Automatic annotation (TrEMBL):
NCBIfam families: oligo_HPY. Its EC number is 7.4.2.9. It holds the Pfam family ABC_tran. It is a peripheral membrane protein. The lineage of its organism: Bacteria, Pseudomonadati, Pseudomonadota, Gammaproteobacteria, Oceanospirillales. This is ABC-type dipeptide transporter. InterPro entries: AAA+_ATPase (IPR003593), ABC_Ni/Peptide_Import (IPR050388), ABC_transporter-like_ATP-bd (IPR003439), ABC_transporter-like_CS (IPR017871), Oligopep_ABC_C (IPR013563), P-loop_NTPase (IPR027417). SUPFAM superfamilies: P-loop containing nucleoside triphosphate hydrolases (SSF52540). SMART domains: AAA (SM00382).
């Protein structure tokens, strides 16, 4: 039984009289302890998906249809009080900027103790000891000192560690990490990712990593889903997807990695840009940026097909399989 099951999820934004789709027919599952990633450029819908899973979509956005089940229990439409029991306790989220989560006018200790006491009946001293223990567990030096400091007194990497410590207080089943290392330098990025990986493995926590960087994803996720313009366009085991990308968009993301260019050369890039919600192309949304697009791509949405151990939504792959079957006399 899947821990989390998302089926045909559609999220839209109502702007004036227009209803603009942001997520279209998103379906995936997550097993206990599994680590998956969603990748794509800014505007692909990755963060909206993360917010949807913890019911943090606010007006003018709304979940139009679909299902999100946690342990077979539907969580879309839960009353705020019941959703509060899911958010943080069962599904926790790490945001790009830890200052979105930390209260700047409260000390680190006050915030951690408050989180503990809101879910337990233990004393302040006991809560403080647990908080300091969790700070130490995420490799924060001098946790007793950090306990009494304010968020602005800590570095970005240290603040992100505090967020991870806060999440561990409630031992969630799932952590959603939305670009958790974007604002950090490369060395600190590696430390935070390694810390997340160790915590998930040690505690059997499932991880959903949201990122635009396939290089980062390759170090953490077992399975990767590629998103473009609100849709999933490719899904497969991470290493296989990176070594043999099927969708032209996935190929473009990989070619854009800095290590794919020689020193002194211009970085590769995908021509054009992600379409806005109000300017979504017909057919396959990637067709106006795709070097292989045909007339069919401009008018029809490709279905998912199996390609090796991955699944992909692309007419190019579909046509290749049809040609192969025709050459083998299967028609």
């Amino acid at each position: 039984m899947s821990l989390l099951s998302v089926k045909d999820l559609n999220v839209s934004f109502r702007i004036g009289r227009q209803e603009l789709p942001a997520l279209i027919d998103i379906s995936f599952s997550l097993e206990r302890g599994e680590r998956i990633a969603f990748v794509g450029e800014s505007g692909a819908g990755k963060s909206i998906l993360g917010f949807s899973m913890v019911n943090l979509i606010t007006r003018p956005g709304f979940i139009k249809s679909g299902s999100i089940k946690l342990d077979k229990k539907e969580i879309i439409g839960l009353r705020p009080r019941h959703m509060q029991e899911v958010r943080g306790k069962r599904i926790a989220m790490i945001f790009q900027d830890p200052m979105m989560t930390l209260n700047p006018v409260l000390t680190i200790g006050q915030q951690l103790v408050e989180a503990i006491k809101s879910h337990t009946n233990i004393t302040y001293r006991e809560a403080k000891n647990i908080a300091i223990e969790k700070l130490a567990s995420v490799q924060i030096a001098s946790p007793e000192k950090r306990f009494d400091q304010y968020p602005h007194e800590l570095s970005g990497g240290m603040r992100q560690r505090v967020i991870i410590a806060a999440i561990l207080l409630l031992t969630p089943d799932i952590i959603i990490a939305d670009e958790p290392t974007t604002a950090l330098d490369v060395t600190i990025q590696a430390e935070i990712l390694q810390l997340l990986l160790e915590i998930c493995k040690k505690n059997g926590v499932a991880l959903i990593l949201i990122s635009h960087d396939l290089g980062i994803v390759s170090k953490v996720a077992e399975r990767t889903l590629v998103m473009y313009a609100g849709r999933i366009v490719e899904e497969g085991p991470t290493l296989e997807l990176i070594n043999d990308p099927q969708h032209p968009y996935t190929q473009g993301l990989l070619n854009a990695l800095p290590q794919m260019s020689l020193p002194g050369q211009r970085l590769n890039q995908i021509k054009g840009s992600m379409p806005s919600l109000s300017d979504r192309p017909s057919g396959c949304a990637f067709h106006n940026r795709c070097p292989y697009a045909t007339d069919k791509c401009k008018t029809q949405q490709p279905e998912f097909i199996n390609s090796g151990i991955s699944t992909v939504s692309c007419f190019l792959i579909e046509d290749m399989f049809e040609e192969e079957r025709a050459s083998l006399g299967e028609y």
